């Protein structure tokens, strides 16, 4: 697999065509094969890129501009449609290559199961890894209707791999009773809110390497209706931006991130992908040192 290949036609605004000189690499994971409600997130990465053309290059929050950094957009990975297991292998192989090349990976989903092979590769490289998970859903099921490969299982798999106390969950407001019991006993669990508990948790994480995974459905449906499993009672886009900036301004060593579950077909206004594109800009400027 060529790491410097652009697999799709459109790219994130201001991205470079020079893979070798780029510190960060954006890549899409167009997979929605295991969703439990509405499909469509496989179209998310391409539409986030398209929405990025409406962004200013400058972030007034961080006083930085993406024209002053070099990053590469590899496009969407070629995933075998309908084959979740092989798709996860392809994602894992690609991310492993990025890490071997010293790149900062920024993934665009796709359903949240796409993050599972990334967690594995990041943990293999950083044995003291901490995971920050911002989402409406706990994603702590062992299986969904008997299927262990489900978008409702990646964080449970991560907990079993790296230990639940290395995982910090924020914004969770949906899940089974068993998931909430498991989270309270095994995870650093901060349900319902994001920014306020982050201020408490970040000093506890310290200077450890951190991977950040964000599900767009942590936002209230009024702010991001374009997602497969919308959940009422969410946070605002302002609070989610504040969370990204809190992480960026802390002592933690962010080593990679992803943004998943944008399903543009359910949002003809395009506000979901517009929010997502702005979040990617802020993560680029805030996380990539």
UniProtKB/TrEMBL annotation:
Mn(2+) binds at residues 112, 135, 137, 139, 215, 217. SUPFAM superfamilies: Arginase/deacetylase (SSF52768). Its cofactor is Mn(2+). One of its GO terms (molecular function) is agmatinase activity. Pathway: Amine and polyamine biosynthesis; putrescine biosynthesis via agmatine pathway; putrescine from agmatine: step 1/1. The keyword DNA-binding does not apply. One of its GO terms (biological process) is spermidine biosynthetic process. Binds 2 manganese ions per subunit. InterPro entries: Agmatinase-rel (IPR005925), Ureohydrolase (IPR006035), Ureohydrolase_dom_sf (IPR023696), Ureohydrolase_Mn_BS (IPR020855). It catalyses: agmatine + H2O = urea + putrescine. Keywords: Hydrolase, Manganese, Metal-binding, Polyamine biosynthesis, Putrescine biosynthesis, Spermidine biosynthesis. Its EC number is 3.5.3.11. Catalyzes the formation of putrescine from agmatine. Belongs to the arginase family. Agmatinase subfamily. This is Agmatinase. The lineage of its organism: Bacteria, Bacillati, Bacillota, Bacilli, Bacillales.
